[in-house]
Amino acid sequence: MQLTMDGHGARHAQLARALRAAIHDGRLRSGARLPASRDMAMQLRVSRNTVIAAYEQLRVEGYVHARVGSGTYVSEVDVARSPPVRVAPVAAPTRFVARMRAIDFRILRRSGDGIRWDMQLGEPVTDPALFTAWRRTLARAALYADPRYPHSAGLPALREALAEYLARRRGVDTSPNEIVIVSGTQQGIGLVARVLVEERDRVALEEPHYFGARMALQAHGARLSGVPVDADGLVVERLPARAPRLVCVTPAHQFPLGATMSLARRQALLDYAASRRCWIVEDDYDSEFRYDSQPLPALRSLDRGDRVIHIGTFSKTLFPGLRLGYVVVPRGLARDFVTTKLLHDFGGPTIEQAAMARFIADGSFERHVRKAGSALRARREVVLAGLATQAAGCVDVVGAHAGMHVTAWLRGFDRERCDALIELARTRGLGLQSIAPHYLRPPRRSGLLLGYAGLSVRELEAAMEIFGQCVRELAPR
Ligand SMILES: Cc1ncc(COP(=O)(O)O)c(C=O)c1O
Predict the structure, then answer these.
(1) Which of 53, 59, 125, 300 sits CB 3.0–4.6 Å from 308 for a disulfide?
(2) CA 185 / ligand 1 centre spacing (Å)
(3) How far apart are CA 208 and CA 403, in angstroms?
(4) Using one digit for the tens of pLDDT, what is the confidence trace for 116-133?
């Protein structure tokens, strides 16, 4: 009998599912004897314990029974009364689900098979030494972990380490009581939405902007307004006269175009928020990586009105699979943020938080950031040199002074030609992404976001060569 394991979850659970399906669809009839566990294990190339566990699970569920000394047999199962679960479409049960279903999630799709050089955003710098150090710290943290529910704001040791780090590196004068540990920026934005935004409230986003924030706020029911950005960041004068509830910005490194918000704009934005009593979300996602200058202190460091929610993440500095970040919340709302987090999940995982506290306190974190920064600098140079030589005259590059990606505007490429370029590159093993999905309204120019963190210098050299070939083949003459 052919049994197909579906590859999801533990092996014994996969085998139990496959056997259950065979009983339901009649391939295994009642009274049939299942192969001996040793034979089944050999046939499926799994351990005998896996088979024994799967048989035992089915026995408990009543699908099979064991006869001592004889084997395991399929029981009398009323297949008609227990059909396999069929999933029928269900109308959206809530407005939230209706809004969520309307969101285009294609932007989150990975490039897929056949992509040898993927210039995907959000890829971390992979460094085996980081994983060795992290594994060691994690093991030690596990040994000493408090098994009780953690504080829902996050482990005090991590909040203390972060308060010190933020004061030193970002100029943010905060106390551990104003910090909430979250599972990344995305959860931070979710908390902000719950605490500060009602359904149908207006929220201003940079145009273009970070899609993660847009999707969360859209699903929450906010009405979104795009505000243009230029070389000084968000154009504050273009914020609506009637204040939105929230303004979301990336002042250190505008996502995705790369501008640093000037001091004058920062002050103007804070004045706007203070006079209209609206809130500002500062998404400080990659300020650690700058190549030409020091980062300006965070917006929160200039805030005298308690209006700024500062969100940071370890997704860029370490890796996104960690799912760890932090929110520096307004002092007057600290309790509300912590209680909302408590209702959400009773606090984040203790061991990872304890490990992170130690990683920061013993200097490992900043050591890695320095090392990753020099790796990124070298990678960025290859990309910039590649664009200048391989795609000369075809692209305008912006936003290269910081972060992990650059924006390449394509000269003379309309949307169709840009899509054709992405497709041609894909057939040659190069993964590219259009900037268009990062806009609320289609942009006037076509452009690409080229992430370079996840590829080595050698790989980037090859990627740039392919990029140049594809661009030259498709560039209008
Ligand atoms: C602008 C911006 N903010 C935040 C993040 C990180 O989000 P998270 O912390 O949820 O992984 C990213 C990741 O790509 C980003 O581009």
Answers:
(1) 300
(2) 6
(3) 16
(4) 999 988 888 989 999 999
